[in-house]
């Protein structure tokens, strides 16, 4: 070994009997090729049973992408020996610098994981690492696989189940979250009862039985699958979904009223859409003055807005009984003065009230899922050239699963 060869052997952490045979530097292409060799005569380990065997022959030459040396793209090249195992037959041995079937060295893959995580987008990581979509995806996939094997799911107390739209149109995924751990546990395609049951089945019965409460929207398939798979858990229809319905009702009422006004040439409600959806505390003073003028007028949407705002106090109660009383009064107001969309939401809450009041025992919401949502949303929007649900699942678990994906020599 000359000095350069020895230098690379050290850099690679190369173990005996592997040796650097040759380092080829292509100055024009900014490319380094490091040729490695396993000498004849040494025994090798069978990758299947682990016993020591003689070398049968060598497989074809393979290449592994390594971390760049300066600005030089660096590759390892070796013809891997195949062992002659009495029990398992002729097998290609494992190499110490790369995982099975990987085209990258462990060091490269480890670095790539860090880069992908830091970038948050596959597109940017792909550019920095100078590798293709497929390669990034396989690195992420192997990372998620390692992470899932190491993951502990025992002792989850609160779960959240939530749907997300996937691609354009009516494709959905269902996401299962560990609310206290603030992590995504699993994802399935679709949002039917069967899909949700499959999702629950990814957790062992024992783990499911330990879950005390599940936050979710008032969506029958989620309710039914949870009753079936977690018969002892409480269901909590959370405030984020409910406030979503209330906002939608306000918007519908405003939009209808605006159209009626415009038909008469009245522009009072023009450009006011956002005002009605803001939380009071988030509106600037200037906008508030403008909004206050609207509130003083006798508008249907002003009343709907007041109904929506009043419902926020519901969540401040300490006890379910007081909250229930408050809700009854609120509902009476809505029934008497509310427009159809608001009445519909009132009725929906009433029909599910028992599982809304569970909030006062467990105090869980999908607020965390809302954060995850925007993350999932950004994964989706950056995923042009997306290859279906499988890739999507890997990305969600990679970025939102809080998995330990680190590569250690023992786990590859
Ligand atoms: Zn063997």
Name its key features.
17 helices; 20% strand; single chain; alpha/beta; five-stranded mixed sheet; binds zinc ion
Summarize the structure.
By secondary structure, the chain is an alpha/beta fold.
* Small molecules bound in the structure, each named once: zinc ion
Radius of gyration from the alpha-carbon trace, in angstroms: 30 Å
Mean pLDDT value = 89
Oligomer: single chain
Structural class based on helices, strands and sheet pairing: alpha/beta
How far is it from the N-terminal to the C-terminal residue, by CA?
Answer: 29 Å
Q: Could you list the spans in which at least 5 consecutive residues all have pLDDT below 50?
A: none
Description of the molecule:
It is a single chain. The model has no long low-confidence stretch (mean pLDDT 89). The chain has helices at residues 3-12, 106-119, 122-129, 133-150, 193-201, 205-209, 220-229, 239-263, 273-277, 285-296, 300-314, 320-337, 340-351, 354-357, 359-362, 367-382, 388-400, and strands at 19-26, 31-37, 44-45, 52-69, 72-85, 89-92, 158-165, 172-178, 183-189, 213-216, 234-237. By secondary structure, the chain is α/β, with parallel strands linked by helices. The two termini are 29 Å apart. The longest helix is centred in the middle third of the chain and has 25 residues, at 239-263. A hairpin with a 3-residue loop joins strand 5 (72-85) and strand 6. It is elongated, with a radius of gyration of 30 Å. The protein contains 17 helices and eleven strands. Strands 1, 2, 3, 4, 5 and 6 form a six-stranded mixed sheet that branches. It has a five-stranded mixed sheet with strand order 9-8-7-10-11, sandwiched between helices. Residues 46, 48-49, 51, 85, 87-88 line the site of zinc ion.
